[in-house]
Amino acid sequence: MVNETKKIQLKLGGLSCSFCASTLEKAFAKKEGIKKATVSLAHNEILVEYKPEKLTPNNIKDTIKDLGYIVRDPDKLKAFEEEEQEIKQKRSKLFLSASFTAAALLIMLIMWSGIMLPWFVWIMFGLALITVFGPGLFILKMAFQSLKRGILNQHVLLEFGAFSGLAGGIAGFFIKDFPGIEFFAVSVFIVTYHILSDFTSLKVRTKASQAVRNLLKLQPSTASVIRNNNEEVIPVEELNINDLIRIRPGENIPVDGNIVEGSSSVDESIVTGESMPVEKKTGDEVIGGSMNKSGTMIVKVTHLGEDSFLQKVAHSIEEARALKPGIILLVDKILKYYVPGVLFFSGLSILIWTAGDYFVTGHIDLVRGILAVLAVFIMGYPCALGMATPLAMIHGGGKAAEKGILVRSSIAFQALKDANIIVFDKTGTITKGTPELTDIIQVDGKNLTTHLVSDKTERAGQAGKDYIIQTAASAEYPSEHPLAEAIVNYADKNNLTLQQVIDFESYPGKGVKAFIENNEILVGSLNFLNSKNVMMLNNAVQISEKMKDNSKTIVGVSENGKLIGMFAIADTIKEDAKDAIKKLKDAGLEPIMITGDNKQTALSVAEQVGIERVEAEVLPENKLHKIRQLQESGNKVIMVGDGINDAPALMQADVGIAIGTGTDIAIESADIVVMGGRLRSIPDVYQIGKNSYNKTVQNLTLAFSFNGIGVPLAVSGLISPIWAMIAMVASVSTVLLNSFGTSIFKSKRNKSKTLNIDIKNIHCDNCIKTIKKVLHEKIKNVKVNASLNNHIIEVTYKDTKITEEGIEEILITNGFYAKVIEKST
Amino acid sequence: MSCSGCAGRIYRALSQYDGVIRSSVDYKNRNVSVKFDEQKISGNKIKEIINTIGFEVIQNVEN
To answer: CB within 10 Å: which end of chain B, N or C, has fewer?
Structure first.
C-alpha cells in the first residue's frame, strides 16, 4: 500500500536548455511524495513517478507552473494553439521592449549631439524600470526560481547585468560624473536582447517540433464493432474483451484478437519485423497495429489496455525515455565555468579597488570599484550565447530540410557528432518492406534455367520471360495478395500488357486459378501446382530449395497442366543501402543490424549491404535492451528504424532516426525524421550534424572571446557601459556573419543544375506531356528534354528551393517510376 | 487514356494515397475502378488526382 506509485507524463513548454531540465528535476527531487522525475529536453516532456496518497496530478502541475514552465494540453491540436499563443505573447513583449530600447537610444543620441536636459535621466530610469519589470518580468521569475535552487543559468546572468545597470543608474544620482544614464540604457538594451534570443529560440524550436508533428496522421483510433447485429464505429478505448470487430482490406488491426470468421494476409512487419506477410485463418491470433492486406475478417478482442501488445510498446517507450542518456548541451557545459568566472572577476574588482588600492596608494576608490563590479556583470552577460544554439538549428535544420530531413531539436546535432555506432532495423529500413519479384526462371526443354531479373544483358532474350510474366500477372491481377501484387507490379514496370481473365478462383495461402482464352493458368506455390497435377520439371525442387536458402519465396506458373516458369519473390534491399552503409563506415561509424526477422534473411541482407554485426529474431521489447546494453558499454548509439517495433529503441538511442513514412509511434519517438525512406540521407544527416556542431563551437568561441576580453578589462574600472553595448553588438554580428555569411554569398551565384532522370514507364505522348507539365508547374526556370525514344530525360533548372529528391518525388507522385541517375553541373 | 501504360500510371499514382485500398485498371476497356475508404479520401479528391496526372474522368459509377 505504501509502495504504490503512479506515473504521469506531461508535455511541457518553456524548456530552453539543459539547465531548465535540471531545474525541474532538482525541484522534484526535493519534493515529498516524488519517487522519480525525468525530463526529456528533446521531446519537451516530463515523466513523474509519485505516491498518489501524498500528491495529486494537480500538485505536480502546480509545481511545474511555479517554476515558470508551462504544462501543455495533451490534445495535440490544442497544444499547437497554445504554442502559437506563446509565440504571439513573446513577440509582443519583444516589440514593447524593443520600443523602449528605441526610446533609450533616441535619448542617448540627443545627449551625444550635445543637448542635455535634466529630466532625461528620469526618463531613462523609468525606461529601465519598466523594461526590467514589464516585458522582462518573466525572465526575472525564471532567474529567481533557478537562483533559489542554486542553479546559475543565463537568465540569472541577465538579471545580474540588468540590476547592475539599474544600480549604476541610481548610483549616478548620488555620485558625480558617474555615467548613470548609460547604465540605465544598458539595462534596457540587454533585457531587450535577451527577450530577442529567447523568442528566436522559441520560434526555432516550435517550428521544428511542429514540422515533425505534421507528419503524424493524428487520426483517433477507431474500430468497427458488431453489437446486437449492428455494426458501428467506436473509439478503440470503448472496446471490451470478447467484442467482435470487423476488419476490412487495407485497414490497420486496432487491437489484439482472435479470428472467428474469415481469413486474410496480414503484414506484421512494423510489429515483428517479419518481411513477408503472414497468412491468417479462422482461429489464428492477430496483433494490434499490424496491417490487414487482403481479406475481410471478424475478430474477437482478446487483449485490451495494459495487456495489449501496443500498450506494452507504449510502456517500453516510456521506460526508454526515462533512461535515455541525457545530454548536457555544450553551451551549458561552458556556462558551468563561465558563471563562477564572472563572479570571480566581480569579487576581484571590489578587492582591487578597495583593499588592493589601499595597499598600493593608501586610499580606497569606491566609485571605481562600483563602476568595475557593475561593468563586470554587464560585460559578463553572454549575449551571443543565447543565439548560438538557435542559429545552429536554423542553419543545420535548414540544410537538413532541403534534403527532406526533419530535426526535432538541435540536441540531435550534438548527439550525432558523439555517436560511434549506428543500428539499423531491417524490414522497411534497409529493405523496401514490400515483396518484389527478383528472379524469373524459364523452362528450357525439360529443365529450368535461372535468369536474374536485374541482369542487364537479358534484353535480347525477352520474349519467353515476358510471356511468363504476362500470363502470371494477368491471372494474379484480381488477387489482392501481396505476392500477386509483386508480380503485377513487375509487369507494370516493364510495360507489359495484361490480358483479361475469366473464371478467377483464389485458393488462400496456396495460389490462384484463372482462364485466359480457354487456357487454364495456375499460379502458386509448388505444392499447390503439384496438388493440381501440374507436371513438375526435373530441377524444379532443387532450384526452389536454393532460392529458399536465400530467403526467397517461390511461385510457379503453369499453363494447361505444364509448368512454364517460376518466380522468386523477396523483400528487396533498397538501392541506396550499400552506398549509404559504406559512407557511414567511412565516416567512422560501426553499423549493426538488429531485426525481428529470421536469421537467414538477416544474414543474407547484412552481407549484401556490408554490415558485419547482426542480431536476428529479436523480439520488439528486446531491441530496446540491446541498445541499452550497447550504451552501458560506453557506446553512443544512433538508431534507424520505421515501425512500431522500433519505437522504444528509437527513444532509447542517443539519436533516434525514423525513416520513410514510418508509423506515428516511430515518428513521435524519434529525434530526426527522414522523409521518403531514402537511406542515402543518413550519411547526409550525420555530416550536417557534425558541421552544425562545429559551427556552434565556432560561434561560441567568437561570442566568448568578446566576453573573455571584456570582463577582465572591466575590472580596471575603465569600461563605460557604452563599450559594453558596443561589444555586445559586435559579438552578435560576428556570430551571425559566421553562421550565414557563406549562404549570402552562395545565393548570389545562380548556378544551374542538370539532372538525368531514368523514367521506366514512358509509353506515349501523353506521358511526355504530363512530365513536362508537372515539372514546369512545380519548378521555376526549368527546361525538360524528353522524348519517346529514350527513357532518360534531362532536366535543367536553377531553382535553389528544389532538390533532386524533390524532383523525383514530383514525378513519382504522378505515377512515374523516376530515378535520378547522374548529375552534371 | 492512350495506352495501357498510362493506365498503369494511374494505378501507381493512386496507390500512394492513404485511403485508396485497391485500384484496378482494365487495359482493354480503359476503365479504372478505385476502391477507397470514404473517411480517408473522397471521390472528388480521386478525380482530382487523376486529372492532375493528366487524364480526364469521363464517367464515374459509384457504389
So the answer is: C
Question: pLDDT > 70: what percent of chain A?
Answer: 93
Residues A186-210 have pLDDT tens digits of: 899 999 989 988 888 888 888 877 7
Rounded Cα distance between A794 and A799, Å, is 15
What is the nearest CA distance from A222 to chain B, expressed in angstroms? Answer: 11
Total Cβ atoms within 10 A of residue A109? 10
- All structural domains of chain B, each given as residue ranges with its CATH number in brackets, are 4-53 (3.30.70.100)
Known catalytic residue at A799: no
| Runs of H (alpha helix) within A462-598 | 462-476, 482-493, 526-531, 540-549, 577-586
Distance from CA of A410 to the nearest CA of B (A): 31
Q: Residue length, chain B? A: 63
pLDDT digits (tens, 9 = 90+) for A319-377: 787 777 777 778 778 888 888 888 888 888 888 888 877 777 777 777 788 888 888 88
Fold topology of A6-72: Alpha-Beta Plaits (3.30.70)
Average pLDDT over residues A522-534: 88
Question: Cβ separation of B27 and A217 shorter than 8 Å?
Answer: no
Write out the three cell numbers for A689: 550534424
Q: Is CATH 2.40.40.10 the classification given to domain A222-307?
A: no
**Rounded distance, CA B17 to CA A800, Å?**
28
- Residue ranges covered by each domain of chain A: 6-72, 81-214+327-390+698-738, 222-307, 400-431+574-690, 434-572, 753-824
Joined grid coordinates for residue B51: 486529372
Nearest to A763 among B5, B16, B35 (CB): B5
From residue A482, give the alpha-carbon distance in Å to each of A61, A133, A487, A554, A566. 49, 66, 9, 13, 17
Contacts of residue A56, defined as CB under 8 A and 6 or more positions apart, other chains included, come to: none
Best CA proximity match to A435, nearest among A556, A555, A569, A553? A569
Helix (H, G, I), strand (E, B) or coil at A12: strand
Nearest one of A314, A576, A550 to A431, comparing CA atoms: A576
Q: What is the CATH number of domain A753-824?
A: 3.30.70.100
CB spacing of B2 vs A766 below 8 angstroms: yes
Angle between helices A309-323 and A620-632 (to 10 degrees): 10
Q: Cβ contact (<8 Å) for B27 and A770? A: no
Q: Could you count the other beta carbons within 10 Å of the beta carbon of residue A378? A: 30
Q: Respond yes or no on whether ipTM tops 0.90.
A: no
Task: Select from A304, A305, A303, A309 the least CA-distant residue to A290.
Answer: A309
Residues of B whose CB is below 8 A from A766: 1-3, 6, 54-55
Among the partner-chain residues B22, B52, B53, the one whose CB lies closest to the CB of A480 is B22
Give A771 to chain B, closest Cα distance, Å: 9
pLDDT digits (tens, 9 = 90+) for A485-507: 889 888 877 777 778 788 888 78
Q: In this structure, which CATH number among 3.40.390.30, 3.30.365.10, 3.20.20.70, 3.40.1110.10 belongs to the domain A434-572?
A: 3.40.1110.10
Contact A495, A763 (CB under 8 A): yes
What CA–CA distances, in Å, run from A53 to A27, A33, A296?
A: 20, 8, 48
Q: Dump the DSSP string for A459-476.
A: GTTHHHHHHHHHHHHHHH
What CATH superfamily classification does A400-431+574-690 receive?
Answer: HAD superfamily/HAD-like (3.40.50.1000)
